[in-house]
Specification:
By secondary structure, the protein is α/β, with parallel strands linked by helices. It contains seven helices and five strands, in the order H-H-E-E-H-E-H-E-H-E-H-H. The protein has one domain: Cytidine Deaminase, domain 2. Helix content is 43%, strand content 15%. It has a five-stranded mixed sheet. The radius of gyration is 16 Å and the shape is globular.
Length: 181
Amino acid sequence: MTLPDLEARFAHASTERTHHRDQHLGIVACREALAAARAGNYGVGAVLVDPKGNILEQGRNSVFFPHFRSDLHAEMVAMTAFEERHPEVDNMRGYTLVSSLEPCPMCMARLLMAGVQTVKFLAYDELAGMVNQRHEFPTAWKRLWQRQEFVQADVSESLKQFARDVFSLNLETCREKLLSR
């Protein structure tokens, strides 16, 4: 799969008419993922939505570009921007974060600590995803999990596949960069 192939597939997927309730937010997250991949980062994007359904923040993985920052995962970028802009918000009940990829350990910890009520992801991450590993969490994390919901987003199969493919685009190159550090 090449970047032009993914761009063409995204153009098609983003205009697709579906009945899936999370399709629009999935498209926004995937648009961010595609921008991350274009820049040479892991192709992951996220969007944070308030209880009324308004998009508050968007984030994309920026670990390698414009310079190395290990904490700039898509979910972290969106959450940091939100927390900096809205210090008055002390409760994340009703908020939803939609990510193109299942949260990794670092992002899972951040989302659990922040208390984002609902976390939806388009594609499972077979390499580092944490949702199916919750039985192995420390007790404190398991307690936090009880107040939140982590589920696969209701989007079309083509958008789920796009999310998997855009993440895979730079996967090996990014791994090599990490291993060479």
